């Protein structure tokens, strides 16, 4: 689903830092060569993601600062550190540096013409750590699920990021079984019941935002006041009381019973 805000300022942003550190230790700020940048957060994703299109004209200014990209010098292979700092037209800042640094997931759509373009897919460092053997969840856990999730993220995955977990009412004991931290947290989400529930719960969601990791009760999320009101109409006008228009939407109505059973849905 895509939507259009009433204020076009929502599309405007300024990148103050976009620095890539190669695996050999060389740094390059590519903010001047970034022609497109998309930032994603989703309650159905364990990581934040960024897709950036960079253009390299192969030039430099005096003093060694990059006026255009010299990506070939970095010899990127994947997994490199990326620091990104930007601000939108409303003054909201996004600081993905320091403990919130990103990593290069993939490099694609490279075109060797007069100008070489690169499309970089970025994700969190924890996504790389999640795949390592030494970060497997192995021991037994007891007590509240919210405490177990926080322990897995901080002591097994060893993330320095903020962990915002809604307290769970139910106690649950389980074994790690050498499974990945992200998988285990998602597995625990559907077994969680929030404090104050009458015994029935929609479960929890495990996801990441620019502020850190969230383990949030779906019931509690629906109890909040709405953040934004959107409407789908066939007119070009935005009715009073709405923040934006939905431009298009779609539903997947296909059904495959075998696939549904395999995925547990």
Overview of the structural elements:
The longest helix is centred in the middle third of the chain and has 12 residues. A hairpin with a 2-residue loop joins strand 13 and strand 14. About 4% of the residues have low confidence. With 265 residues, the chain is an alpha+beta fold. 15% of the residues lie in helices and 33% in strands.
What's a quick, concise take on this entry?
With 265 residues, the chain is an alpha+beta fold.
Global shape: globular
Gap from first CA to last CA? 22 Å
Task: Write down the secondary-structure element order.
Answer: EEEEEEEEEHEHEEHEEHEEH
Radius of gyration: 22 Å
- Determine the fraction of residues in helical runs and give it as a percent range: 10-25%
Q: How would a crystallographer describe the biggest sheet? A: 8 strands, antiparallel
- Structural class by sheet pairing and helices: alpha+beta
**Hey, roughly how much beta strand do the residues contain?**
25-35%
Low-confidence stretches: 59-68
The overall average pLDDT, rounded, is: 87
Tally of contiguous helical segments: 5
Number of strands: 16
Helix-strand blueprint:
Blueprint: E1 2-5, E2 13-21, E3 27-29, E4 34-40, E5 49-56, E6 81-88, E7 93-96, E8 102-111, E9 116-124, H1 125-129, E10 140-141, H2 145-156, E11 163-165, E12 174-175, H3 181-189, E13 204-209, E14 212-217, H4 218-223, E15 230-231, E16 244-248, H5 257-263
Parallel strand pairs: 11-14, 15-16
Antiparallel strand pairs: 1-16, 2-3, 2-6, 4-5, 5-9, 6-7, 6-8, 8-9, 10-12, 13-14
Helix pairs in contact: 2-3
